[in-house]
Amino acid sequence: MSIYDHFRPEERTFVDRVLQWQDEVHERYVPKLTDFLDPREQDMIKQIIGNHPDVGVSFSGGVDGTERKRALLTPPYIEVSPDDFELTAFEITYPAKFVSLSHPDLLGAMMGLGLKRDKFGDIIVQDSTAQLIVAKEIADFVRMNLTQAGKASISPEEIDLSTLRINEAEWEEQTGTVSSLRLDTVLAEVYNLSRTKVAAMIEHDRAKLNWKVISQPSSEVAAGDYLSLRSFGRSKIISLDGKTKRDKWRITYQIRK
Q1: What SS3 class is residue 222?
Q2: Per-residue confidence at 42, pLDDT binned at 50, 70, 90?
Protein backbone atom coordinates (compact mmCIF):
# COMPACT_ATOMS: atom_id res chain seq x y z
CA MET A 1 0.00 0.00 0.00
CA SER A 2 1.32 3.43 -0.98
CA ILE A 3 1.55 6.19 1.61
CA TYR A 4 -0.80 8.22 -0.61
CA ASP A 5 -3.57 5.70 0.00
CA HIS A 6 -3.87 6.98 3.58
CA PHE A 7 -4.81 10.49 2.47
CA ARG A 8 -7.13 12.32 0.11
CA PRO A 9 -6.07 12.78 -3.53
CA GLU A 10 -6.08 16.55 -3.08
CA GLU A 11 -3.63 16.17 -0.17
CA ARG A 12 -0.94 14.51 -2.30
CA THR A 13 0.95 17.79 -2.82
CA PHE A 14 1.24 18.28 0.94
CA VAL A 15 2.32 14.64 1.42
CA ASP A 16 5.10 15.19 -1.13
CA ARG A 17 6.18 18.35 0.69
CA VAL A 18 6.42 16.53 4.03
CA LEU A 19 8.41 13.69 2.45
CA GLN A 20 10.80 16.25 0.98
CA TRP A 21 11.25 17.92 4.38
CA GLN A 22 11.87 14.54 5.96
CA ASP A 23 14.50 13.65 3.36
CA GLU A 24 16.26 17.00 3.78
CA VAL A 25 16.55 16.56 7.54
CA HIS A 26 17.62 12.92 7.21
CA GLU A 27 20.23 13.48 4.51
CA ARG A 28 21.64 16.88 5.51
CA TYR A 29 21.23 16.59 9.30
CA VAL A 30 19.82 20.12 9.58
CA PRO A 31 16.47 21.13 11.15
CA LYS A 32 13.50 22.26 9.06
CA LEU A 33 11.01 24.82 10.40
CA THR A 34 7.67 24.99 8.59
CA ASP A 35 5.13 27.75 8.30
CA PHE A 36 1.95 27.58 10.42
CA LEU A 37 -0.09 24.43 9.87
CA ASP A 38 -3.73 23.68 10.61
CA PRO A 39 -4.55 20.64 12.81
CA ARG A 40 -5.20 18.40 9.79
CA GLU A 41 -1.75 19.16 8.39
CA GLN A 42 -0.22 18.55 11.82
CA ASP A 43 -1.93 15.15 11.98
CA MET A 44 -0.62 14.31 8.52
CA ILE A 45 2.97 15.13 9.45
CA LYS A 46 2.71 12.90 12.52
CA GLN A 47 1.38 10.03 10.39
CA ILE A 48 3.96 10.43 7.61
CA ILE A 49 7.03 10.77 9.81
CA GLY A 50 5.72 8.36 12.42
CA ASN A 51 8.57 6.76 14.36
CA HIS A 52 11.32 7.61 11.88
CA PRO A 53 14.59 6.76 13.69
CA ASP A 54 16.49 9.77 12.37
CA VAL A 55 13.84 12.49 12.14
CA GLY A 56 11.81 13.89 15.01
CA VAL A 57 9.00 16.42 14.87
CA SER A 58 7.76 18.98 17.40
CA PHE A 59 5.01 21.59 17.21
CA SER A 60 4.40 25.00 18.74
CA GLY A 61 1.91 27.79 18.22
CA GLY A 62 3.26 29.95 21.03
CA VAL A 63 1.59 28.44 24.10
CA ASP A 64 -0.44 25.36 24.93
CA GLY A 65 -3.93 25.38 23.46
CA THR A 66 -3.18 27.12 20.18
CA GLU A 67 -4.71 25.59 17.07
CA ARG A 68 -2.35 26.65 14.30
CA LYS A 69 1.27 25.62 14.90
CA ARG A 70 4.67 25.54 13.25
CA ALA A 71 6.38 22.17 12.95
CA LEU A 72 10.09 21.67 13.55
CA LEU A 73 11.65 18.58 12.01
CA THR A 74 14.99 17.74 13.58
CA PRO A 75 17.78 15.16 13.47
CA PRO A 76 18.05 13.10 16.68
CA TYR A 77 20.97 15.01 18.21
CA ILE A 78 19.14 18.35 18.43
CA GLU A 79 17.31 19.35 21.59
CA VAL A 80 14.38 21.59 20.73
CA SER A 81 13.73 24.84 22.63
CA PRO A 82 10.76 27.26 22.37
CA ASP A 83 12.94 29.88 20.65
CA ASP A 84 13.57 27.47 17.78
CA PHE A 85 10.02 28.01 16.50
CA GLU A 86 10.71 31.71 15.82
CA LEU A 87 7.38 33.09 16.96
CA THR A 88 6.35 36.64 17.85
CA ALA A 89 3.20 37.65 19.73
CA PHE A 90 1.40 40.99 19.57
CA GLU A 91 -1.22 42.65 21.73
CA ILE A 92 -3.53 44.66 19.48
CA THR A 93 -4.46 47.96 21.09
CA TYR A 94 -7.52 49.83 19.84
CA PRO A 95 -10.19 52.22 21.21
CA ALA A 96 -12.45 49.49 22.63
CA LYS A 97 -14.83 52.04 24.16
CA PHE A 98 -15.81 53.30 20.73
CA VAL A 99 -15.42 50.43 18.26
CA SER A 100 -15.49 46.64 18.32
CA LEU A 101 -12.90 44.30 16.86
CA SER A 102 -13.62 40.75 15.72
CA HIS A 103 -11.62 37.74 14.59
CA PRO A 104 -12.75 38.26 10.95
CA ASP A 105 -11.69 41.92 11.18
CA LEU A 106 -8.14 40.99 12.13
CA LEU A 107 -7.96 38.08 9.70
CA GLY A 108 -9.11 40.36 6.89
CA ALA A 109 -6.61 43.03 7.88
CA MET A 110 -3.71 40.58 7.82
CA MET A 111 -4.74 39.13 4.47
CA GLY A 112 -5.22 42.69 3.18
CA LEU A 113 -1.53 43.34 3.83
CA GLY A 114 -0.75 40.61 1.29
CA LEU A 115 0.30 38.06 3.91
CA LYS A 116 -0.32 34.38 3.32
CA ARG A 117 -2.40 32.61 5.97
CA ASP A 118 0.43 30.23 6.78
CA LYS A 119 2.61 33.11 8.00
CA PHE A 120 0.54 33.80 11.11
CA GLY A 121 -1.05 31.61 13.72
CA ASP A 122 -3.98 31.99 16.10
CA ILE A 123 -5.92 35.22 16.36
CA ILE A 124 -7.29 35.60 19.89
CA VAL A 125 -10.15 38.02 20.49
CA GLN A 126 -11.69 38.00 23.97
CA ASP A 127 -13.89 40.74 25.36
CA SER A 128 -12.01 43.97 24.61
CA THR A 129 -8.57 42.45 24.05
CA ALA A 130 -6.99 41.02 20.93
CA GLN A 131 -3.75 39.12 20.42
CA LEU A 132 -1.95 37.75 17.38
CA ILE A 133 0.84 35.22 16.82
CA VAL A 134 3.07 35.55 13.77
CA ALA A 135 6.22 34.07 12.28
CA LYS A 136 9.20 36.11 13.47
CA GLU A 137 10.27 36.84 9.89
CA ILE A 138 7.17 39.00 9.29
CA ALA A 139 7.00 40.61 12.75
CA ASP A 140 8.60 43.92 11.73
CA PHE A 141 6.33 44.18 8.69
CA VAL A 142 3.24 43.58 10.83
CA ARG A 143 4.36 46.08 13.47
CA MET A 144 4.77 48.83 10.87
CA ASN A 145 1.80 48.12 8.60
CA LEU A 146 -1.04 46.68 10.68
CA THR A 147 -2.81 49.94 11.49
CA GLN A 148 -6.45 49.28 10.58
CA ALA A 149 -8.86 46.38 11.11
CA GLY A 150 -12.55 46.76 10.35
CA LYS A 151 -13.55 50.21 11.61
CA ALA A 152 -10.83 50.29 14.25
CA SER A 153 -7.48 52.03 14.16
CA ILE A 154 -5.10 49.58 15.78
CA SER A 155 -1.53 49.34 16.99
CA PRO A 156 0.37 46.04 17.47
CA GLU A 157 2.61 45.94 20.53
CA GLU A 158 4.97 43.01 20.98
CA ILE A 159 4.40 40.91 24.10
CA ASP A 160 5.98 37.84 25.61
CA LEU A 161 4.51 34.57 24.41
CA SER A 162 3.81 33.57 28.02
CA THR A 163 1.23 36.36 28.31
CA LEU A 164 -1.00 34.99 25.55
CA ARG A 165 -4.51 34.25 26.80
CA ILE A 166 -5.70 31.06 25.15
CA ASN A 167 -8.93 29.38 26.15
CA GLU A 168 -8.14 25.78 25.32
CA ALA A 169 -10.94 24.17 23.33
CA GLU A 170 -13.06 21.46 24.90
CA TRP A 171 -14.32 18.60 22.76
CA GLU A 172 -17.28 16.35 23.45
CA GLU A 173 -17.20 12.84 21.99
CA GLN A 174 -20.39 11.33 20.59
CA THR A 175 -21.48 8.42 18.42
CA GLY A 176 -24.13 8.13 15.76
CA THR A 177 -25.25 6.34 12.62
CA VAL A 178 -25.50 7.68 9.08
CA SER A 179 -26.92 6.20 5.90
CA SER A 180 -23.80 7.20 3.95
CA LEU A 181 -20.51 9.06 4.38
CA ARG A 182 -21.63 11.99 2.24
CA LEU A 183 -20.66 15.33 3.74
CA ASP A 184 -24.25 16.58 3.98
CA THR A 185 -25.39 13.37 5.66
CA VAL A 186 -22.59 13.40 8.23
CA LEU A 187 -22.96 17.10 9.04
CA ALA A 188 -26.71 16.64 9.47
CA GLU A 189 -26.03 13.91 12.06
CA VAL A 190 -23.28 15.81 13.88
CA TYR A 191 -25.22 19.08 14.21
CA ASN A 192 -28.73 17.58 14.42
CA LEU A 193 -29.98 19.39 11.33
CA SER A 194 -31.96 18.34 8.30
CA ARG A 195 -29.92 17.09 5.37
CA THR A 196 -31.75 19.53 3.07
CA LYS A 197 -30.69 22.51 5.18
CA VAL A 198 -27.12 21.29 5.41
CA ALA A 199 -26.89 20.66 1.65
CA ALA A 200 -28.02 24.22 0.96
CA MET A 201 -25.42 25.59 3.40
CA ILE A 202 -22.67 23.56 1.73
CA GLU A 203 -23.70 24.82 -1.71
CA HIS A 204 -23.46 28.38 -0.38
CA ASP A 205 -19.84 27.81 0.79
CA ARG A 206 -20.69 27.67 4.49
CA ALA A 207 -18.95 24.36 5.15
CA LYS A 208 -15.31 23.37 5.37
CA LEU A 209 -13.63 20.00 5.11
CA ASN A 210 -10.12 19.96 6.57
CA TRP A 211 -10.06 23.76 6.66
CA LYS A 212 -10.93 24.09 2.96
CA VAL A 213 -14.26 25.51 1.77
CA ILE A 214 -16.19 22.80 -0.04
CA SER A 215 -19.34 23.24 -2.09
CA GLN A 216 -20.21 19.64 -2.99
CA PRO A 217 -22.72 18.00 -0.59
CA SER A 218 -21.81 14.59 -2.04
CA SER A 219 -18.14 14.82 -0.99
CA GLU A 220 -17.19 11.82 1.11
CA VAL A 221 -15.99 12.04 4.70
CA ALA A 222 -13.27 9.82 6.17
CA ALA A 223 -11.85 9.10 9.61
CA GLY A 224 -9.55 11.89 10.75
CA ASP A 225 -11.38 14.60 8.82
CA TYR A 226 -12.09 17.97 10.42
CA LEU A 227 -15.47 19.49 9.59
CA SER A 228 -17.08 22.85 10.21
CA LEU A 229 -20.39 24.48 9.46
CA ARG A 230 -20.66 28.23 9.79
CA SER A 231 -22.47 29.26 12.99
CA PHE A 232 -22.47 25.66 14.25
CA GLY A 233 -18.79 25.16 15.09
CA ARG A 234 -16.19 22.53 14.40
CA SER A 235 -16.10 18.79 14.66
CA LYS A 236 -13.79 15.87 13.90
CA ILE A 237 -14.49 12.35 12.70
CA ILE A 238 -12.61 10.08 15.11
CA SER A 239 -13.44 6.71 13.57
CA LEU A 240 -15.71 4.76 11.27
CA ASP A 241 -16.92 1.81 13.33
CA GLY A 242 -18.41 -0.51 10.75
CA LYS A 243 -22.01 -0.98 9.69
CA THR A 244 -25.22 -1.86 11.45
CA LYS A 245 -27.60 -4.65 10.41
CA ARG A 246 -29.52 -1.99 8.49
CA ASP A 247 -26.38 -1.12 6.51
CA LYS A 248 -25.80 2.23 8.21
CA TRP A 249 -22.36 3.50 9.16
CA ARG A 250 -21.51 3.81 12.84
CA ILE A 251 -19.33 6.87 13.44
CA THR A 252 -17.52 8.31 16.43
CA TYR A 253 -16.96 12.06 16.34
CA GLN A 254 -16.08 15.02 18.50
CA ILE A 255 -17.79 18.40 18.63
CA ARG A 256 -15.97 21.47 19.83
CA LYS A 257 -17.92 23.05 22.68
Answers
A1: coil
A2: very high
